[in-house]
């Protein structure tokens, strides 16, 4: 055991195959089911990308109508889910609201808990559960933000598609096209990224033949951390600390002296550039132009160039998405729940892929504790 090579953080370890997405750090590219993600973001509604991740193909016209119809049927925030969120203190992080809500949805799905041996469910049941979570999460995320602001939930609007309705349920006003389009693209960019920490968590849970809801709840927990999804929130905290572009240098001096991690920079897989950043940066630029906020552009550019100069580390997707969500009007604490609403499509695609060719995920460890010893007076059985 002592001679085993330890791969700390599983860095560089290939644990399984996947047909859902391909991350190519060498060419800075990311494909969902073979399609370049910038092309999907430029042309598709998020509903089509959800269908693509689950089924492997973009929907036909009638399939898109079907997914949109089902999504509308399950949009309404349910009373039982709302009550479960209301039990939590207002000071709870909205990621806790979302995690609790998904757990309650799972507990209320009686088909899921009849018998532990049946928990995994059929492919059809799991597709249906995936679809429902996809449809229900916007209402949950919108309510999590509204509750913190002391506002009531807003009923969905049947005349609006996914992205426009999500913004409607959050703000109670009809968003302008430029904002709907920006939001739609951000959802597509966040939807899937191979064996990242939260997706891997979902696959580990699935590999024990647990149910889809348990796997999604675990994935939400993994996403919350600032080294993963929580970084988009953390970027805005950093922007708030710095204040304006002229303070970047001094702030960075202190942060680097204190060995702080600068959130929104660096990536385990991409060592040069994150393939998703150029598309999200364009989204941010459009919002900056729309809302006339050159101050954000200056701070963004100065921090990026100073940090690159000093540490040679590039931004990841969370760097442009943090200020973009801020400009759209979301509270900073809502940013990671937005990531959940998008990534639930990728997680559930991976859960179904894991179920289809399962092997229990159970790695080894190299023991470094004390050697065998014996309790005084105990009979020693070799
Ligand atoms: N700020 C400061 N230093 C950094 C950063 C950063 N953001 N990222 C990497 N480094 C440094 C480390 O301090 C380390 O330096 P050292 O070798 O002198 O000790 C070196 O670069 C390697 O970093 P690791 O953390 O060991 O690399 P790893 O591959 O494990 O890290 C990670 C990837 C966790 C994402 C890291 O870059 C990080 O913490 N970034 C900030 C958090 C973040 O933005 N997360 C979002 C990830 S993307 C996503 O979830 C959409």
From TrEMBL:
It catalyses: oxaloacetate + acetyl-CoA + H2O = citrate + CoA + H(+). SUPFAM superfamilies: Citrate synthase. InterPro entries: 2-MeCitrate/Citrate_synth_II (IPR011278), Citrate_synth-like_lrg_a-sub (IPR016142), Citrate_synth-like_sm_a-sub (IPR016143), Citrate_synthase (IPR002020), Citrate_synthase_AS (IPR019810), Citrate_synthase_bac-typ (IPR024176), Citrate_synthase_sf (IPR036969). One of its GO terms (biological process) is tricarboxylic acid cycle. It holds the Pfam family Citrate_synt. One of its GO terms (molecular function) is citrate synthase activity. The active site is at 267, 318. Keywords: Transferase, Tricarboxylic acid cycle. Pathway: Carbohydrate metabolism; tricarboxylic acid cycle. GO terms for cellular component: cytosol. PROSITE patterns: CITRATE_SYNTHASE. Belongs to the citrate synthase family. This is Citrate synthase. It comes from Agrococcus baldri. The lineage of its organism: Bacteria, Bacillati, Actinomycetota, Actinomycetes, Micrococcales.
């Amino acid at each position: 055991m002592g001679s085993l090579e330890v791969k700390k953080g599983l860095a560089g370890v290939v644990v399984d195959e996947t047909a859902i997405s391909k991350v190519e750090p060498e060419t800075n590219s990311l494909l969902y089911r073979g399609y370049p993600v910038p092309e999907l973001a430029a042309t598709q509604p998020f509903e089509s990308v959800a269908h693509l991740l689950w089924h492997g193909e973009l929907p036909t016209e009638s399939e898109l109508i079907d997914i949109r119809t089902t999504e509308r049927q399950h949009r309404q925030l349910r009373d039982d889910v709302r009550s479960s969120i209301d039990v939590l203190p207002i000071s709870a992080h909205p990621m806790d609201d979302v995690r609790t809500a998904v757990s309650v949805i799972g507990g209320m799905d009686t088909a899921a808990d009849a018998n532990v041996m049946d928990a995994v469910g059929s492919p059809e049941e799991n597709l249906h559960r995936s679809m429902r979570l996809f449809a229900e999460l916007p209402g949950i995320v919108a309510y999590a933000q509204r509750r913190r602001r002391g506002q009531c939930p807003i009923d969905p609007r049947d005349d609006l598609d996914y992205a426009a309705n999500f913004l409607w349920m959050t703000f109670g006003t009809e968003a302008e096209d430029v904002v709907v389009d920006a939001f739609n693209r951000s959802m597509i960019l966040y939807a899937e990224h191979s064996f990242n920490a939260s997706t891997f968590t979902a696959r580990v849970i699935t590999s024990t033949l647990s149910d889809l809801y348990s796997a999604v709840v675990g994935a939400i927990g993994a996403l919350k951390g600032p080294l993963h999804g929580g970084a988009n929130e953390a970027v805005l905290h950093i922007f708030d600390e710095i204040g304006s572009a002229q303070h970047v240098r001094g702030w960075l001096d202190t942060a680097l002296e204190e060995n702080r991690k600068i959130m929104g920079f660096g990536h385990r897989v991409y060592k040069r550039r994150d393939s998703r950043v150029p598309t999200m940066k364009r989204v941010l630029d459009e919002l900056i132009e729309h809302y006339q906020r050159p101050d954000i552009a200056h701070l963004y550019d100065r921090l990026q160039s100073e940090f690159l100069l000093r540490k040679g580390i590039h931004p990841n997707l969370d760097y442009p998405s943090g200020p973009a969500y801020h400009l759209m009007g979301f509270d900073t604490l809502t940013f990671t729940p937005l990531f959940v609403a998008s990534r639930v499509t990728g997680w559930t695609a991976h859960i179904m892929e894991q179920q289809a060719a399962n092997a229990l995920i159970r790695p080894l460890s190299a023991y470094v504790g004390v050697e065998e010893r014996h309790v005084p007076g105990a009979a020693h059985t070799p």
